[in-house]
């Protein structure tokens, strides 16, 4: 996103931008609030048709146990370090679990990665195999989230409040100082009000409205979100007057639905990485890369090369001797003619 914003804000010094996996519409508060978790669900459905029904069943059983007050059984089957004892704990458990799905959908690369936790190749496929291998849906869900939270297999239980911290970004902020900084920024500049509804997605109903966000940000940071700040400062969805930006998105990335997926002009170019997760085209070459990302990278390089050449020619023309002397003559009201420089 920042590269696109740089080009839009400072076209005099930035020749072009590659905005990979940039949800420019979502962060400006535009689009469908159900889109993100719907698309996370679609990733798991594509991986294994039986995965989504199993996940739905697990969450439904957890909710049934909660309604019957069977907190001990929830704690035991989900392997939580501390006993689940109230509605707030159950809601935290749901957020903790949903976050694992989000992260694995984003990081669904065809090879191992370690920059957002230790994840296996194709983590969506691996995690679906985990839940489908268990007869008990809830225990299967615990194994599924373990692909993200317990990749080493050494954790004996999940500290759901330490491993997941709810924040102003319903897709997750992470943990630590970076997460705190992002949480504040989401409260002041970025507008993400995605919700899961258990209808268009497989997750429990967990609304996150603008009013809820405002209440949270006021309580946590003593600030009030600026709902239209990005639309005012960086144009929102009115991007047609910009130029020289590549919008690339992977079709496995749940953020893609909040970005630009169709070219807006000959110089506002949308590219799709088939079989690609979050900003796969920005990562280094890997033998397991899908063919589409290799093609997209070559096309991106070619387009960027043309921008650099054009900018170089423009700069050279500006420095040519006599270039600044080009002018035009216009008459004034008094009949005198005044010469004005064109450059």
Question: Would you kindly provide a written description of the structure presented here, covering whatever features stand out?
Answer:
By secondary structure, the chain is mainly α. 45% of the residues lie in helices and 8% in strands. The protein has 13 helices and five strands. The strands form two sheets. Strands 1-2-3 form a three-stranded parallel β-sheet, with helices on both faces. The protein has a two-stranded antiparallel sheet with strand order 4-5. Helix 4 (51-67) crosses helix 8 and helix 7 (123-132) packs antiparallel against helix 8. The chain is globular, with a radius of gyration of 25 Å. The relative contact order is 0.15.
Summed up:
Helix content is 45%, strand content 8%. By secondary structure, the chain is mainly alpha-helical. The chain has a three-stranded parallel sheet, sandwiched between helices. Strands 4-5 form a two-stranded antiparallel sheet.
């Amino acid at each position: 996103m920042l590269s696109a914003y740089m080009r839009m804000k400072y076209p005099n010094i930035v020749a072009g931008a590659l905005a990979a996996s940039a949800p420019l519409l979502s962060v400006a508060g535009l689009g469908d609030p159900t889109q993100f978790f719907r698309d996370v669900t679609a990733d798991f459905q594509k991986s294994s048709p039986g995965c989504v029904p199993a996940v739905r069943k697990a969450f439904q059983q957890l909710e049934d146990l909660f309604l019957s007050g069977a907190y001990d059984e929830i704690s035991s089957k989900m392997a939580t370090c501390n006993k689940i004892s109230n509605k707030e704990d159950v809601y935290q458990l749901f957020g903790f679990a949903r976050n694992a799905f989000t992260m694995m959908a984003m990081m669904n690369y065809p090879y191992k990665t370690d920059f957002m936790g230790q994840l296996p190749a194709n983590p969506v496929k691996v995690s679906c195999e985990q839940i489908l291998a268990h007869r008990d849906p809830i225990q299967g869900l615990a194994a599924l989230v373990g692909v993200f939270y317990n990749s080493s297999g050494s954790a004996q239980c999940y500290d759901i409040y330490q491993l997941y911290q709810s924040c102003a970004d319903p897709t997750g902020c992470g943990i630590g100082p970076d997460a705190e900084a992002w949480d504040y920024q989401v409260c002041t500049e970025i507008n993400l009000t995605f919700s899961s509804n258990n209808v268009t997605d497989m997750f429990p109903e967990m609304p996150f409205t603008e009013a809820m966000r405002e209440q949270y940000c006021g309580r946590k940071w003593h600030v009030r979100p600026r709902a239209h700040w990005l639309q005012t400062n960086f144009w929102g969805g009115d991007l047609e007057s910009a130029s020289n930006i590549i919008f690339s998105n992977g079709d496995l990335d749940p953020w893609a639905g909040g970005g630009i997926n169709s070219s807006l002009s000959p110089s506002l170019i949308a590219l799709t990485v088939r079989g690609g997760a979050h900003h796969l085209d920005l990562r280094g070459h890997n033998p397991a890369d899908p063919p589409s990302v290799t093609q997209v990278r070559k096309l991106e390089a070619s387009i960027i090369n043309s921008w650099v050449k054009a900018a170089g020619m423009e700069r050279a023309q500006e420095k040519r001797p006599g270039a600044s002397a080009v002018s035009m003559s216009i008459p004034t009201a008094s009949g005198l003619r005044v010469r004005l420089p064109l450059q």
